[in-house]
Amino acid sequence: MKEKVDRSINRIDAPEKTGGYAEYIADMKFEGMLYAKTLRSEKPRAVIKSIDIPLLPEGCYVVDKNDIPGKNRVKMLLDDQPFFAEDIVNYIGEPILLVVGPDREQVAQVLSNIRVLYEEMEPVFTIVDAVKCDKASIYGEDNCFSGYEIIRGDPDRAFREAAEAIEGEYRTGLQEHIYLEPQGVIGVYENERVTVYGSMQCPYYIKTALVQGFGWDEERIRVVQTTTGGAFGGKEEYTSIIAGHAAFAAVKTGRPVRLIFDRAEDIICTTKRHPSIIKIKTALDKNRKITAMEVEITLDGGAYAGLSPVVLQRAMFAATGVYNIPNIKVKGRVFATNNVPSGAMRGFGGPQAFFAIEMHMQSLAESISRDPLDFKMENMLSKGDLTVTGGVLRYEVKLPQMIDLVEKMSGYRRKYEAFINDRGEVPKGIGLSIFYHGCAFTGSGEKEKIRARVKLKKRKDGKVLILVASVEMGQGSSTTLRKIVARAMDLPVEDVIYENPDTDIVPDSGPTVASRTVMIVGFLLKKAAERLKAGGEKAADFKVTEACEGPAELEVTEEYEEPGYIKWGHEKFEGDAYPTYSWGVNVVEVEVDPVTFVIKVNGIWGVYDIGTIIDERIIRGQMEGGIAQGLGYAAFEVMNTDCGNILQPSLADYIIPNSKEFPEMEIRLIDNPYEYGPFGAKGAGELPFIGAAPALASAVQNALKVPIKRLPVTPEYLLKVAEGEK
Amino acid sequence: MEGIFKINGKEIKVSFKSDAVLLSLLRENGCTEVKEGCREGECGSCVVLLDGRLVNSCQVFAASAAGKEITTVRGIGNIHSPHPIQSAFADSGAVQCGFCTPGMVLAAYCLLKKNPDPREDEIIEAIDGNLCRCTGYVKIIEAVKIAAKRMRENG
Asked: Which of residues 52-111 of B touch A (CB under 8 A)?
């Protein structure tokens, strides 16, 4: 009998993880393995004048820019970041060289005796200073990594004719991923081939980076993912750098080289969520209807571009939120500073944009004496409306019924009214956010950049192997993808096998990012499974691994085909920025200590439309975890820098949520099948993060009756706001 | 230095440096289920039971653990015969990336030894030294409740 597809099953990786048998990168040992540690820049911006390396002990090596046979640039969008610094360093923590040796303590000792002579240059630490550009530019002529503009309708005219215009400026800070397992890789060189094992999201990004770094044929490079202890975007592009380091070292020494960070090193030198400044100006006509919106987004990209241009695009495509605005101007720029590079993190620009637009809409409504939720709902997008980029929303937008549901769950309206009039000793508040996440790659990325391929093989014993590059990093894809194939082929899930990707075996189904794994890769797997069930093609020879003993009987390859309705013009950012959207409504209730201004969360409710659910328990886990991470971002995950030094380089200083912070969460999932997702599923992983911060900040605004314009909403900030400084 | 360590009921003789911490000693001797997340006693990934007491093994000198009973997550059950807490974690979706899981399971084990019928706030208190970045703790708390119930019912 066919089970319902959303019936929760136990995760396939749960027994080995609860038992303590799952093997992470730090648990792996290789014969003759050496340990590597990185010498990092102590200066935010300087010319390296000289490096004084004492005589190395027997068996110790130094690996640096001279040991890179190919191009000393990490393959990414703008290719501006070197694997190892050349003559200039641009942030504190930038890698200069590795010391490699058989004994960890000896390696650390050697490292501490290396002296670097710097000639310091004037650094740039803030977005404002980067824009001003009155010091030597870090990137290009004006520090600007990327700048774009979207114009729809006639915003200038709408502003000229407006009865009034209301403005706000919103700022957000750094956030660190804090995957519990720090970054780590092991490089191995044998038989003229290099293999990198490691904790990662994107095996093929790493392979491509190594091909460029070595200048070798891709046949000589292999990347194998090991059990990954969380990533959240932090192991998307960053891991390519350390994969290069370990691989160059393995080739130089001829021995396996292990490069694993401790927590402080991980916090100091890995990518972070982009800090932002977002200005929004809204034009209203005499009936107080919104006629136009102008949004200016500025991001701190840190020292190197990395994925910043695409993070910026995603922020821009969310600039006007879930609202139907007839005339739009969105300007976005991301700047270079001498801070640690910003990079991918769950939400990828969306959280900054949605914080700004949701706070703006609430303040705007309150300033014209309108109920914020009524005002938002009057302006909300529905099916047939246009997105920021003028794409048509082709599928039903179920926001009205989702808001209805969250209202019933939380009592939002009644509480909002009660709290706004409450002058009790302990201020209480409730906030509501409405948001979406564009599923999969931005613009034509899936078609032009990724072109995902998946493969299924059916063995003689009837078991089916999933061959994809998409990784299990905690989000449950090893279980979810198996369920999709099992269901499509009417097999028990135990008969479908998924192993951690090895680029020698799996085709490139793209990176494990952008909430694309289930919707894009899962859909291809479903199509492949249906063809395999119908017969498939004769299997070609393929490499035998432990997972696939015995000859394959049948195989099917499936390649991404863009749904015909998608129209995208990348030059002007016109059309469908995403194949479809997942939607959410989040309510948070708080009280604020009147003396300390510490926020206590008293209630969390969320309603999400992620299409059809493949496994309800896994999805609830994603929603709950995303909310907690988002509320940490909102309330207390403070990361400051002082002259380029991160001031919270440990888990004692950088506080992430523990079990005490947040009470129970009540979550509902709305069914809204998407025709190009497997069984109707859309993207899920990033969505819950996005709504949490604006919901919490709105609740604080409701409690304190002052506009909240900063993240995180720290007691120090609230004290300032309450005193009317800002 | 040299010492006898009783790990999950088995005695091993190990030589170690006088300033070595228990976490390193355990990991170097095959107990890779004890995870290193921060090495500063903040994350709880490395907790073990030392004579029945939950400790961050990164904050304990190996020398002081010699001769004491050390229990890791592999000591309370295995894949073929999991402890009810391990089963409950699997059954309630309390495991995602799995890196915090060995420590979480041990924190729960320690709680349920002392208190077979904990209130929710007692569960929250018992795991507040173990960080998880994936779950938001909801399903972990649920797993401990389920484990407690099953353990009470089955004696």
From this structure: 72-74, 77-79, 82, 86-87, 89-93, 95-102, 105
